[in-house]
Write a sequence for this structure.
């Protein structure tokens, strides 16, 4: 995607990183508060840190569906994070004031990700153009594939003609399930 289209994703990733950092600190405190708090902290740790990981990974999306899929996972994780924070408050593992920032930020991230998905769905997928001096150079992937093919051509024999490439005989397994008991295979 072009820089303008990925800008919201970068902002989301930056905010989600800070959210994950604070979630880790919160979970460290919760792990010291008893069994229920530990269980909630385990779930909160997983979902809270996954938001940023998936939002960040979406920036490397190779296709529009890949980009949107990673953002959709980040959105799902934000829903789950809100759930665990609300459960922690409801079960009195934490006070509402203690997690006010985390709860508000999780809800804001959820709204931002939802909007980024809607924008991504309605926009054209555009390739990021490299500087004009780089336009004549192949990409690293195609260059790597070229190098691999060149090296392989040194070590591999020339392929046979197209008519002989697939001339290996087809071996079929015998069907033993249709044989009658007591009869030998032919």
């Amino acid at each position: 995607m072009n820089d303008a289209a990925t800008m919201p994703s970068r902002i989301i990733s930056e905010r989600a990183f800070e959210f994950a950092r604070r979630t880790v600190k919160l979970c460290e405190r919760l792990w010291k508060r008893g069994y229920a708090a530990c269980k909630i902290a385990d779930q909160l740790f997983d979902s809270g840190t996954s938001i940023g990981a998936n939002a960040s990974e979406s920036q490397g999306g190779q296709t529009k569906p890949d980009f949107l899929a990673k953002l959709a996972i980040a959105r799902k994780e934000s829903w789950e994070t809100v759930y665990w924070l609300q459960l922690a408050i409801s079960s009195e593992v934490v006070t509402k004031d203690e997690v006010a920032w985390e709860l508000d930020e999780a809800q804001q991230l959820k709204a931002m990700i939802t909007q980024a998905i809607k924008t991504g769905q309605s926009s054209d997928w555009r390739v990021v153009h490299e500087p004009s001096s780089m336009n004549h150079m192949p990409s690293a992937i195609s260059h790597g594939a070229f190098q691999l093919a060149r090296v392989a051509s040194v070590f591999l024999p020339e392929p046979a003609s197209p008519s002989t490439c697939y001339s290996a005989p087809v071996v079929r397994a015998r069907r033993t399930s249709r044989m009658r008991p007591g009869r030998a295979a032919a």
Observations:
- Helices lie at 3-30, 35-58, 64-90, 100-122, 140-155, 162-165.
- The two ends are 63 Å apart (CA to CA).
- Residues 1-5, 127-177 have pLDDT under 50 and may be disordered.
- The chain is about 65% helix and 0% strand.
